[in-house]
Design brief:
31% strand; 6-stranded antiparallel β-barrel; 178 residues; single chain; Cyclic Phosphodiesterase, Chain: A; alpha+beta
Length: 178
């Protein structure tokens, strides 16, 4: 079973992205019933949950709540079958991704290279992968009006399956407030 380490946004950020999420889900006929938009950092196959929780809490303990920049580049992840908006690849989120990746490799987890990871905000899931998706993506790039929104990340979680609303959260990691 796949487990996901995800970053979650605060309520104001979720409200700011809600209109874009509804519009893109409708245009691409995607399933918009995901818990909330999230940023997937790592995907792991059958990890030891206790060991994973310990490593993630150690990596995230020094960090406080931070902001990420959202670009207007829309793309589809074929691996996860999700509709995503690309994030600006700099700042705290990149540092956390590299630290998390290094610590997970050090503790024997099988993870991808962080340079191969595209940081993105997941808007919707596909039940099936449409054939004409690339054509629709190029047409809808100009319709997005996100204009470099700033979103606030308030915490991280370990999820079982992001495609199911029920019983997905395994562990919560709140960030410090200064």
């Amino acid at each position: 079973m796949k487990y996901y380490i995800v970053a979650l946004l605060d309520e104001a950020s979720n409200e700011a992205i809600l209109d874009t999420q509804k519009l893109m889900s409708k245009k691409f006929r995607a399933n918009k019933n995901i818990p909330n938009p999230y940023i997937a950092l790592e995907i792991l196959d059958n990890p030891n949950i206790e060991k994973l929780t310990e490593v993630v809490s150690k990596v995230l303990s020094p960090y406080k709540k931070f902001k990420v920049e959202l670009t207007n580049t829309l793309f589809v992840s074929e691996e996860c079958k999700t509709l995503n908006l690309k994030l600006d690849n700099r700042g705290y989120i990149k540092k956390i991704l590299y630290s998390l990746n290094d610590m997970l490799k050090l503790h024997g987890f099988n993870v991808k290279d962080p340079d191969a990871t595209v940081l993105s905000l997941t808007l919707a899931n596909f039940n099936y992968y449409p054939r004409d998706i690339k054509k629709k993506l190029s047409e809808n790039q100009t319709l997005l009006n996100t204009e470099e929104k700033t979103l606030k990340v308030t915490g991280f979680q370990i999820w079982k399956m992001p495609h199911n609303k029920h019983e997905i959260k395994l562990k919560d990691f709140e960030l410090k407030v200064f």
